[in-house]
Write a structure and sequence with these properties.
Blueprint lengths: L10 H9 L11 E2 L3 E2 L1 H12 L21 H9 L1 E3 L9 E4 L9 E7 L2 E5 L5 E5 L2 H6 E6 L16
Antiparallel strand pairs: 1-2, 3-8, 4-5, 4-8, 5-6, 6-7
């Protein structure tokens, strides 16, 4: 197997893998295609299809309302993904959402088109959703999968 820094894949590969998770039931802290995942598990599963990673994930609260909490999800994403400005997001990118401006980002999805994304819907399954005004207002961060950028430095900055 090639090292992570040697793998170059395309956005089509990311989208195809992400869509193969559609219908996977919601299961908090799981990341097993067809069996169950939550929003982070979906992103981890797509990432692991191309860059296997055995890093243990700490336990986390499934709720959105952790006012004053740290940006744990964004900090974790910055370790493995490439931070992007929100206006530069494109299909295949990971979007992180926050419920309110004073809360940390607590939900993730993968952008499919300019107005549609894939996410693990609580108490349901991985599904496509419209990037409606409600969701759009809550986007806090955008990240790209490494693709060919994995050849560059491992130092990542977070763009709010």
């Amino acid at each position: 197997m090639k090292a992570r820094s040697e793998i170059a894949i395309g956005v089509e590969d990311i989208l195809s893998e992400a869509l193969s998770w559609e219908g996977t039931p919601y299961r908090h802290q799981a990341s097993c295609k067809g069996f169950g995942c939550d929003c982070l598990g979906l992103v981890r599963g797509v990432y692991s299809a191309f860059w296997p990673n055995d890093t243990p994930i700490p336990t986390y609260n499934p709720g959105w309302a952790d006012a004053g909490g740290t940006e744990t999800l964004a900090e974790g994403a910055a370790r493995y993904l490439v931070s992007k400005r929100l206006e530069d997001r494109s299909p295949g990118d990971v979007l992180l959402f926050r419920y309110r401006s004073e809360f940390p980002a607590k939900h993730a999805g993968i952008l499919l088109t300019g107005n549609q994304f894939l996410h693990a819907h609580h108490n349901s399954a991985v599904c496509r959703a419209s990037l409606s005004d409600w969701w759009e207002r809550r986007i806090a961060y955008a990240f790209a999968f490494p693709l060919s950028l994995a050849r560059q430095t491992n130092k990542r900055e977070i763009h709010p």
